[in-house]
Specification:
The structure holds 2 protein chains of 2 kinds. By secondary structure, chain A is mainly α. Chain A folds into 3 domains: 36 residues, no CATH class; 130 residues, no CATH class; 137 residues, no CATH class. Chain A is 76% helix and 0% strand. The radius of gyration of chain A is 27 Å and the shape is globular. Chain B is an all-alpha fold. Chain B contains 17 helices and no strands. The two termini of chain B are 15 Å apart. Classes of the chains: A mainly alpha, B mainly alpha. At the A-B interface, helix 1, helix 2, helix 3, helix 11 and helix 12 of A face helix 1, helix 2, helix 3, helix 9 and helix 14 of B.
């Protein structure tokens, strides 16, 4: 055991002390004395200070919001646009003043990017542009792109990617190039395009992690991108599996979808277990795979027919138990094999 | 923050901590860490176990469904399944089997309720009695944190339902329990919740055994307050909210009790009565602030503050998180329901925000100044 990672050297906490009491490793009197000490050492003052500051600011801002809500109908078009645009400018000026290298500056830039959406919404409301939702989100993403590049702030990039996801999501149902799609085609196009968009973002994020880029986070964004890529992939595969129940559909696309999904899951599993170990990432992949496999079991056992027998339910339950059991076993093995000591 | 080792060696009982004992503590913590799964793995385990259990239940119902003619038979099967679930759940067969046992035990409890409750004869009272009995029995027999929490929470909420039900009968019958009896019961039950909360969490030796009950009480209090937010009980029982005595009892007296508990917990968190004497002006200020909150009738805000205080001082993310979620909900609800126009609300919001910012400035100027200088 490496002495530098001894659990005794970690900061003491009340839950740990109570666990030691439950395990009878410490006595009641010892725990009571230590708890008192731990509670005294808690950062009460800084917590109170931050709570009062943030609550005070939120209440004042809400009050200002109410003030404008009260006077909104009396404002002219120019005043409304001026207010919304002014808020964006204040955010930008604040970010420049605080410095884009510092956290408050980055946060203010994020606020300015969010307020651009408010400006576009106010503009659309005043001039009744009749623009589709996807146009609003595309314009929003287009206008804020330079700030996102300058900001070098991962939450800002994720926010921008969220805008692109929304733009893409709202685009397919009203797409002018392909005529009127059937709902199944729209679902398919949406899931595949979102998978490609978020998958590309994940590839870029993982590629950038090889370089010493100071503003990249420690891996939280990779997990968000992985989940954002796997969710449409799983939905598309499950959709293809159940689509074979519909009249006149062939099972060819379902086989292709399952094959591609399986290859992607195995590839991602290999990458996050061997190349860049991450247990949370493996958990996301396992959960996605177990969900798809469970739905595959439901399809193979043909739960669509009437009069299901007791044996079918039992078999399905056993297979689900086996699928999740293997998944959990894989994750526990990975965890133990990467644990120090 | 001090490390556990520093804490052991600097405590009044430092002589108790020999190098061998410290090694023993280290081993216990390592074992604890190894057996403890991260939360996201627990979720996957639970999802799989509950999903599979659902299919197994369908299997059982399809298998025996055609032979069931009497409700009581289902209740008896529920009892048998519950015994089986408890027997399996007590074995050290891993978290996956434990979750399956929990799912089966909950479904078995539902079968017991269905099997043994007579719809025409005091159904709510019977369900409340069974739920309390099952919670107590399973607390001892089934040592799973989640099982204890869920059964206790169910018992607490079903008892609340019985309190508001007229004479322990049908809650939707429209007939009322006498107002004085109802107000006494509500008050007593609220007091019971607060007392249980303090009893379960403030003493380490109680917390070891009673933590699941404590969390169930926290969840029940939060649910009750949210139910009050939507007037669930007033609407379901047809209680007139304009009734002076009921209104005063169910709102203000409960708020007073919550404020008193909050004050007591803050004294406890600060280190006890001795600290109260040392920092008398600070606690007088806190008492005045609490009195102001009681006066303006923001009971939900007080409850969320109590959760935040408990969560922070016990370093419990669950309670702190619940408090942080409930706080903006109750605060927004309070301001939203102020009988004022938008301009006046704007003034009140800006005013209260300014008061908090001034309070912060005053604390930094007079009370925390010495700490900053020392730092």
């Amino acid at each position: 055991m490496n002495t530098s990672s001894s659990p005794l050297d970690h900061p003491a906490s009340i839950p740990i002390l109570r666990r030691l009491l439950a395990a009878r490793a410490l006595t009641r009197q010892e725990v009571e004395t230590m708890e008192l000490q731990v509670r005294r050492d808690l950062p009460w003052k800084s917590w109170l200070d931050r709570a009062l500051l943030s609550l005070g600011i939120v209440l004042v801002l809400a009050g200002i919001g109410y003030f404008f809500a009260h006077n909104w109908d009396h404002l002219t078009k120019n005043e409304k646009l001026g207010l919304a645009g002014g808020a964006v400018l204040v955010g930008l000026m604040g970010a420049t003043w605080a410095g884009l290298e510092r956290f408050p500056g980055k946060l203010l830039l994020l606020a300015a990017c969010a307020l651009v959406g408010v400006y576009i919404a106010v503009f659309g409301q005043i001039y009744q542009t009749g623009a589709d939702s996807y146009e609003l989100f595309t314009a929003w993403a287009f206008l804020t792109f330079p700030w996102v590049v300058l900001g070098r702030f991962m939450p800002l990039w994720l926010f921008w990617l969220g805008l692109l996801n929304l733009a893409l999501g709202f685009y397919w149902p009203v797409s002018p190039f392909f005529g009127l799609f059937e709902s199944w085609d729209i679902f398919r196009l949406e899931t595949i395009s979102l998978l490609l968009l978020n998958g590309l973002a994940l590839l870029l994020r993982e590629g950038m992690a090889r370089w010493p880029i100071s503003w990249l986070d420690r891996g939280g964004s990779a997990l968000i991108l992985l989940a954002a890529a796997l969710a449409p992939a799983s939905l598309e595969t499950i959709g293809e599996i159940f689509h074979t129940w519909d009249d006149g559909s062939s099972s060819g696309s379902a086989f292709i979808a399952c094959g591609l999904y399986g290859a992607a899951v195995i590839g991602l599993g290999f990458y996050y277990s061997r190349r860049r170990y991450s247990l949370p990432a493996l958990a996301i992949i396992t959960l996605s795979a177990c969900t798809v496999l469970t739905n595959l079991v439901v399809r193979i056992l043909d739960f669509n027919r009437s009069g299901l027998t007791a044996g079918t339910w039992l078999l399905a339950g056993l297979m689900i138990l086996a699928i999740f059991g293997v998944g959990v076993f894989f994750l526990r093995t990975q965890r133990l094999s990467h644990q120090p000591g | 923050m001090k490390s556990l080792k520093e804490l052991c060696l600097s405590s009044e009982r430092a002589e108790n901590f020999s190098p061998e004992r410290l090694r023993g503590l280290e081993e216990t913590l390592i074992q604890d860490h190894r057996s403890d799964l991260p939360w996201y793995l627990r979720i996957i385990v639970a999802l799989g176990a509950w999903w599979a259990s659902g299919f197994f239940f369908c299997f059982i119902f399809v298998l025996i469904g055609s032979q069931l003619e009497h409700q009581v038979t289902i209740g008896c099967i529920g009892v048998a399944l519950l015994i089986l679930a408890v027997a399996v759940g007590r074995q050290p067969w891993g978290i996956f089997v434990g979750q399956c046992a929990l799912a089966v035990s909950l479904a078995a409890q539902a079968m017991i309720y269905y099997g043994f409750v007579n719809e025409n004869h005091h159904p709510v009272g019977t369900v409340a009695a069974i739920s309390i009995g099952l919670a107590a029995l399973l607390y001892v027999a089934f040592p799973s944190f989640l099982s204890r929490l869920m059964t206790c929470f169910a018992a607490l909420q079903v008892t609340l339902c019985w309190i508001y039900a007229p004479g322990g009968g049908d809650i939707f019958s429209g007939t009322l329990r006498p107002e004085s009896a109802l107000s006494h019961l509500v008050l007593f039950y609220w007091l019971f919740h607060l007392a249980a909360l303090a009893c379960c969490f403030l003493r380490p030796r109680h917390s070891v055994l009673l933590a699941p009950l404590g969390y169930a009480v926290v969840a029940s209090l939060a649910a009750w307050q949210v139910e009050n937010l939507f007037n669930v009980w007033v609407l379901s029982t047809g209680i007139s909210s304009t009734s002076a005595w009921i209104g005063w009892t169910t709102l203000h007296f409960r708020t007073v009790l919550t404020a008193l508990t909050l004050f007591g917990c803050s004294v406890w968190a600060a280190g006890g009565i001795s600290t109260l004497r040392e920092n008398a002006p600070l606690f007088i200020g806190l008492a005045l602030a609490l009195m102001a909150l009681v006066w303006i009738g923001s009971g939900g805000v007080l409850l969320s503050l109590l959760f935040m205080l408990l969560g922070f001082s016990l370093q419990s993310r669950a309670i702190l998180g619940l408090g942080l979620i409930l706080f903006p909900i109750f605060l927004t609800y309070y301001y939203y329901n102020l009988n004022l126009d938008l301009l006046a609300k704007s003034g009140v919001l800006i005013g209260s925000g300014a008061v908090l910012l001034l309070l912060r400035a005053a604390l930094n100027r007079w009370l925390f100044a010495n700490d900053k200088e020392a730092a």
